[in-house]
Design a protein that fits this description.
Helices cover 45% and strands 21% of the residues. It is of the alpha/beta class. The radius of gyration is 20 Å and the shape is globular.
């Protein structure tokens, strides 16, 4: 027969194992595990995987994993705020926009931090929060949407791509201080990147343009989130 001490030990080991699985599979730690905090953090790294599964060697963030996490943050009364940490090359446009809309629609305070890169569809994710930070060494690439696979070169195809591009631009404009005309200009720039269209913005450039609110790193992001939480509750 197990003693109370043995039961407590087994429960603790099970909890530690569950927390380890979360870290390995999703890169997440929640306030319900051994790490106690009223702030939840979610990291978005590598390529944002949407409806198509990317090759196994790719580092990916699966949007179907993040959707229930975001819902849980909104529903959990123990969690007061959310920190989004981004180091992404971009990925599926609709998946990225879906996550961006969910974050923007949360009632709880949210802050984003771009480390390394917040490229392509990572930009709407970065600006979807109440306040955004970028490390001075980080970079963000503004460019037109891309498509892969078979392309039917008919007018409706180009019209759909144009409207999809407008969806991305409008989201960025509505959730940042950046000017729409400047976004469009930098997206279609042909002299910033070799053999490509678009503009690479480093941290200070993104702040100057109004895409990102402030330069900073982890401590500044957490401090700002705490300030927003204190004013919210």
């Amino acid at each position: 027969m197990n003693t109370d001490k043995e039961k407590d030990k087994n429960a603790e080991e099970k909890c530690d194992s569950s927390a380890t699985d979360l870290i390995k599979e999703l890169g997440l730690m929640t306030s319900t595990n051994s790490f106690k905090s009223d702030i939840q953090y979610i990291n978005i790294i590598g390529s944002i995987e949407g409806h198509s599964v990317l090759p196994q060697e790719n580092k990916t963030t699966k949007y179907e994993h993040l959707i229930p996490e975001l819902v849980a943050v909104e529903e959990n009364p123990e969690i007061k705020g959310l920190l989004i940490i981004l180091n992404t090359v971009g990925g599926d446009v609709e998946a990225g926009l879906a996550l961006s809309e969910l974050i923007a629609g949360m009632s709880k305070p949210t802050v984003s931090l771009v480390i390394g890169g917040g490229h392509s569809i990572g930009i709407p994710l970065a600006v979807s929060t109440d306040y955004s930070f970028a490390c001075p060494s980080s970079s963000m690439t503004l460019h037109p949407i891309r498509t892969t696979g078979t392309l039917i070169t008919a007018e409706p195809t180009f019209e759909y791509m144009r409207k999809t591009q407008e969806r991305v631009i409008d989201f960025i404009v509505n959730h940042s201080k950046a000017d729409k005309s400047e976004i469009v200009e930098k997206m279609n720039c042909t002299d910033n990147m070799s053999n490509d269209v678009g503009t690479i913005l480093f941290g200070p450039d993104a702040v100057k343009m109004g895409l990102i609110d402030e330069l900073g790193s982890l401590s500044q992001a957490l401090k700002k989130l705490r300030e927003i939480i204190d004013n919210y509750y």
